[in-house]
């Protein structure tokens, strides 16, 4: 069931071409207002585009002449909140789709029980939605979406409304359920993308700014947003030589061409990407001799405890750079907001590639 959508909405600055291949799960990432919900609303038939078309499994869902209404699209949308019918019990909620599709009461109930079994929620069949935990309700909502046998499944941040304890079990369930299904998931978590998606599409300002296989994209992000999600530092500039990047406000940044065989040409837009653990912090008077090539003056903005590490956010003239230190090292440096420091990143730990 491949899905393809190209659509523009002037009022929202939305102008996007988007595709999901048969059996593939795509994660849609992007900052607030990027157009993620707009993409879903267009696919589900809750919103009309100014121009464009969408095709699911060879059927036109909309174009400049045709318009298939939401219930006839074969598209199921799972919202952040489970949105179950409060007056129906669990099995009736799940049977609703098959009933609406013309199944007999008996067959619809059978289908509902099968799908509830699929999401390990059969034991909840007789409960009302008000008697379910957040995680249980989301399981039931997934069963209800699947019971409608959608050709395309859209999941809008399915873990957003859950407490952290309930998310891992549901994530594993979705991993099983989404395998071989054509699906799109909106998420703000790198873990979701890694666990659930074959491919990632990054939206910003209503446009696709980056897309690619999940592991590759999160390891070598080309957008600030994807780098942030992957927990990596990210600088943009222009190459001046192989492995060297001129970054406004920071001067030349030295790194290693990645991949080695594909050196960015001089003058090309490129990015330098490095891990917070590969950034060291010094007092300005104590920068080691032998002049490290990447040494940037910065002012500490914030210290953030992260398990056994302290994450230091430090502002350079160009961008905030984050460094992970041990609490002992942070204390030894007497760091606090406003401290003047020098950040050092070894060239060998900085990946440079074309943007
Ligand atoms: N009902 C609406 N009417 C007009 N403009 C809207 C409406 N909803 C959203 N927009 C605009 O459309 C653009 C895309 O918003 P959208 O809600 O699709 O982003 P999003 O990526 O889903 O954001 P978030 O992560 O905050 O949910 C934004 O500029 C937003 O202000």
UniProtKB/TrEMBL annotation:
Keywords: ATP-binding, Cell membrane, Membrane, Molybdenum, Nucleotide-binding, Translocase, Transport
Statement: the UniProt record of this protein carries the keyword Transport: yes
Sequence ranges assigned to domain Mop in this UniProt record: 289-354
GO BP annotation list: molybdate ion transport
Superkingdom of origin organism: Bacteria
One GO molecular-function entry: ATP binding
Domain ABC transporter: 3-230
Pfam family, one: TOBE
Name of the protein this chain belongs to: Molybdenum ABC transporter ATP-binding protein
């Amino acid at each position: 069931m491949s899905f393809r959508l190209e659509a523009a909405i002037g009022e929202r600055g939305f102008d996007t071409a988007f595709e999901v291949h048969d059996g593939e799960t795509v994660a849609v990432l992007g900052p607030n207002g990027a157009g993620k919900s707009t993409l879903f609303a267009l696919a589900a038939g809750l919103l009309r585009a100014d121009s464009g078309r969408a095709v699911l499994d060879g059927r036109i869902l909309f174009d400049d002449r045709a318009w298939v209404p939401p219930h006839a699209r074969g598209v199921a949308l799972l919202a952040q909140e489970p949105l179950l019918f409060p007056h129906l019990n669990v099995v009736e909620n799940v049977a609703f789709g098959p009933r609406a599709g013309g199944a007999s009461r008996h067959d619809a109930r059978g289908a509902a029980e099968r799908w509830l079994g699929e999401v390990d929620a059969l034991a909840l069949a007789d409960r009302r939605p008000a008697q379910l935990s957040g995680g249980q309700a989301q399981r039931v909502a997934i069963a209800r979406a699947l019971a409608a046998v959608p050709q395309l499944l859209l999941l809008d941040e399915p873990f957003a409304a859950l407490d952290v304890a309930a998310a891992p079990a549901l994530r594993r369930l979705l991993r099983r359920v989404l395998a071989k299904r054509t699906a799109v998931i909106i998420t703000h978590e790198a873990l979701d993308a890694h666990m659930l998606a074959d491919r990632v599409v990054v939206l910003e300002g209503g446009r696709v700014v980056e897309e690619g296989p999940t592991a590759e994209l999160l390891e070598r992000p080309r957008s600030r947003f994807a780098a942030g999600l992957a927990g990596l530092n990210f600088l943009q500039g222009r190459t001046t030589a192989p492995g060297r990047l001129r970054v406004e406000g920071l001067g030349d940044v030295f790194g290693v061409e990645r991949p080695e065989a594909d050196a960015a040409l001089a003058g090309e837009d490129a990015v330098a990407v490095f891990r917070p653990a590969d950034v060291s912090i010094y007092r300005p008077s104590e920068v080691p001799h032998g002049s490290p090539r990447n040494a940037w003056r910065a002012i500490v903005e914030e210290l953030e405890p992260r398990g056994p590490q302290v994450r230091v956010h430090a502002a350079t003239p160009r961008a905030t750079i984050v460094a992970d230190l041990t609490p002992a090292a942070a204390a030894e440096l007497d760091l606090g907001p406003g401290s003047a420091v020098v950040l050092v990143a070894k060239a060998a730990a900085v990946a440079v590639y074309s943007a």
